[in-house]
TrEMBL record:
It comes from the Bacteria. SUPFAM superfamilies: Phosphoglycerate mutase-like (SSF53254). This is Histidine phosphatase family protein. It comes from Morganella morganii (Proteus morganii). InterPro entries: His_PPase_superfam.
């Protein structure tokens, strides 16, 4: 029996300042730098990386998702897929569920409200239970949501888990 295992790891971008600069705070940058070791040691080498495409605002582009995944991309020498803006959740869902990723580990960095929509849509699409999905709190930058999707010849199963990065005690400054 042929089967495939796909692991999708979802995380929110690092901490942001209380303005519309589109940047990370020092703590957010420190989180991004720590994520390369954490994600690779916990989930192995990713086959693909996705981040929300920069969004233009009055002050400039929101680069937080890209800034958060960049240290991982550098460590793994992988490109970052930036095809979709944060609100394009159905397009992201379709890309992640594409047959090309069925045997992949994929790290996805996104804006938290839309990240919840993507995970819920993937659970719906794959027959998973999304009825007791947790809420992603506005001040939670430390969660990881993981979907393990196992595809058999005729069946598909999906397991959702919520984990913690354990990086909340990072410094608020960077130099």
């Amino acid at each position: 029996m042929t089967h495939s295992v796909q692991t999708l790891v979802f995380l929110r971008h690092g901490e942001k300042p209380d303005n519309d600069s589109g940047q990370l705070t020092g703590k957010g940058l420190n989180r991004a730098l720590a994520l390369a070791d954490l994600l690779i040691s916990r989930y192995g080498r990713a086959d693909a990386l996705y981040a929300a495409a920069p969004k233009q605002s009055k002050l400039g582009n929101s680069l937080r998702s890209l800034q958060t995944i960049t240290p991982v991309a550098i460590r793994l020498s992988l490109p970052v897929h930036l095809e979709f803006h944060a609100k394009e959740t159905k397009a992201l869902r379709d890309a992640l569920l594409d047959k090309a990723h069925h045997r992949h580990t994929v790290f996805v960095v996104w804006e938290h409200d839309n990240l919840v929509k993507v995970v819920r849509d993937i659970l719906k699409q794959t027959g998973g239970d999304y009825s007791d999905m947790p809420v992603w709190a506005r001040d939670d930058f430390d969660s990881l949501w993981v979907l393990n999707i196992v595809r058999g010849e005729k069946e598909i199963s999906v397991a959702f888990s919520q984990e913690k990065q354990g990086l909340n005690n990072l410094k608020d400054y960077y130099y």
